[in-house]
């Protein structure tokens, strides 16, 4: 077994050697002559290898059920289809004359399109996150050979139709054999997708050395090299031929990795660090949200709790002081709640509290805030402190709570005593405002309950529901 150091050196040679060959070809070798039939056979051979790797990927998927490998199977079968049509549309070939176009520029354009499309398809399928359908078993159960066969037929049918309707295809070559902007864009996107994938596989290999993952890393680097060479070369040049060799070598190397995983003990083991970081960040965000809910909200009713209410009131005071504004604090204590608990039990009492909370929430505006600060004690912060607004909200709450409330077939008759204080007329601290509203609420309790009262103050005249 080779050591990690030797494996890494060998992998580096696979990536660096083509660059050396490229430099040699550019500086020492003249343009190769057009060998049309050689290209046809060479690409058909490459397509056969791609189909073989796709089939091997599917066999490996059936063995270990790693979703990513199924995408790899789709990728290479697509390469096989598109590369086959790349061979069939080779200009002036004597073997596949039925696919030759009357217009040579159109012929070369479609010919190049299928070549670029094969690399783009491979990049796209490898780019698909393996967690995309992680929890969707309804779709994953269809990951089988029949779907691959269906995709193979569909891609072949679309390609066949496109060949005989070239007007529907974008132009990939100008008359002087230079790439069009669309062709350049396709290659650039391919490079971006492959580059991101190569980075992910590199990080995965750094976490845990895995031969199969390393083979994919090498293959992706070779595809990037071949894409760049296709971009800077023209058809039939020596660099263009080298690009073909690199592309073929890329999926031979990747196919070797899949074969190694299928036959050996060391299996394809991809660890998406970037994906895991994103996953853990999302999980942390969810946990923080849950913790915030536990800390700031009442578990029974969902309203904010005493802690959250105190902090929110401090913010209300700061804002009102800054803007020279005001707000109202309503202290709500339920009437006859203990009687309901004694008659029907605490379970009914809890359900009643939930019902009351919902009624209070629905009685106030969205910009106001309701809290449960004790057993049957609630507080409401009203952004508007005008008497008419306070009266309107108070009467809405009393109207909803005075009517009988039916819980699981049990009729519960309660009411509410509401005391109200206003900032800054009744105090400029949380404690002062609560104390004043509490005093007003107890006045209502003594006067017969089920009413509301604004705290007495020299700056604000006394008011009550009946006054």
From TrEMBL:
Presence of the UniProt keyword Repeat in the record: no
SUPFAM superfamilies (UniProt xref): Nucleotide cyclase
Lineage start: Bacteria, Bacillati, Bacillota, Bacilli, Lactobacillales
Entry keyword Secreted: no
PROSITE patterns reported in the protein's UniProt record: GGDEF (PS50887)
Ranges for domain GGDEF: 325-457
UniProt-listed Pfam families: GGDEF (PF00990), MASE3 (PF17159)
Protein name: Diguanylate cyclase (GGDEF) domain-containing protein
InterPro entries linked to this entry: DGC-Regulatory_Protein (IPR052163), GGDEF_dom (IPR000160), MASE3 (IPR033425), Nucleotide_cyclase (IPR029787), Rev_trsase/Diguanyl_cyclase (IPR043128)
Membrane-traversing stretches: 7-26, 38-57, 69-88, 108-133, 145-164, 180-199, 211-232, 238-260
Keywords on record: Membrane, Transmembrane, Transmembrane helix
């Amino acid at each position: 077994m080779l050591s990690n150091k030797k494996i890494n050196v060998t992998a580096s040679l696979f990536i660096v050697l083509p660059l050396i060959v490229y430099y040699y070809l550019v500086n020492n070798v003249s343009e190769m002559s057009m060998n049309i039939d050689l290209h046809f056979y060479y690409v058909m051979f490459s397509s056969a290898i791609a189909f073989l790797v796709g089939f091997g990927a599917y066999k490996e998927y059936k063995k270990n059920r790693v979703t990513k490998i199924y995408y790899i199977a789709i990728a290479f079968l697509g390469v096989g289809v598109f590369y086959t049509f790349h061979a069939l549309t080779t200009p002036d070939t004597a073997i596949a004359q039925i696919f030759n176009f009357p217009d040579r520029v159109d012929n070369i354009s479609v010919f190049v399109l299928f070549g670029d499309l094969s690399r783009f398809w491979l990049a796209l399928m490898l780019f698909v996150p393996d967690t995309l359908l992680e929890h969707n078993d309804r779709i994953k159960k269809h990951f089988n050979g029949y779907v691959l066969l269906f995709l193979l037929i569909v891609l072949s049918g679309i390609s066949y139709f496109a060949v005989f309707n070239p007007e529907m295809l974008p132009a990939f070559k100008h008359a002087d054999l230079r790439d069009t902007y669309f062709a350049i864009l396709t290659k650039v996107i391919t490079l971006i997708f492959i580059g991101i994938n190569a980075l992910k596989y590199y990080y995965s290999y750094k976490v845990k050395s895995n031969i199969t993952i390393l083979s994919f890393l090498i293959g992706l680097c070779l595809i990037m090299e071949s894409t760049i060479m296709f971009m800077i070369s023209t058809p039939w040049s020596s660099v263009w031929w080298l690009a073909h060799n690199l592309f073929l070598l890329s999926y031979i190397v990747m196919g070797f990795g899949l074969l190694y995983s299928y036959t050996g003990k060391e299996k394809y083991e991809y660890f998406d660090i970037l994906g895991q970081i994103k996953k853990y960040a999302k999980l942390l965000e969810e946990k923080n949200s849950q913790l915030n809910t536990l800390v700031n909200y009442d578990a029974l009713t969902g309203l904010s709790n005493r802690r959250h209410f105190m902090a929110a009131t401090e913010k209300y005071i700061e804002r009102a002081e800054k803007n020279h504004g005001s707000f109202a604090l309503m202290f709500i204590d339920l009437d006859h709640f203990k009687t309901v608990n004694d008659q029907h039990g605490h379970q009914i009492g809890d359900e009643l509290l939930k019902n009351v909370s919902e009624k209070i929430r629905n009685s106030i505006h969205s910009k106001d805030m309701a809290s449960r600060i004790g057993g049957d004690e609630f507080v409401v912060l009203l952004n508007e402190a005008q008497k008419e607004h306070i009266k309107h909200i108070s009467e809405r709450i009393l109207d909803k709570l005075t009517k009988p409330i039916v819980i699981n077939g049990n009729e519960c008759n309660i009411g509410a005593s509401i005391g109200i204080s206003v900032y800054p007329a009744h105090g400029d601290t949380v404690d002062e405002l609560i104390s004043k509203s509490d005093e007003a609420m107890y006045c209502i309790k003594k006067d017969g309950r089920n009413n509301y009262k604004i705290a007495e103050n020299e700056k604000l005249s006394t008011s009550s529901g009946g006054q």
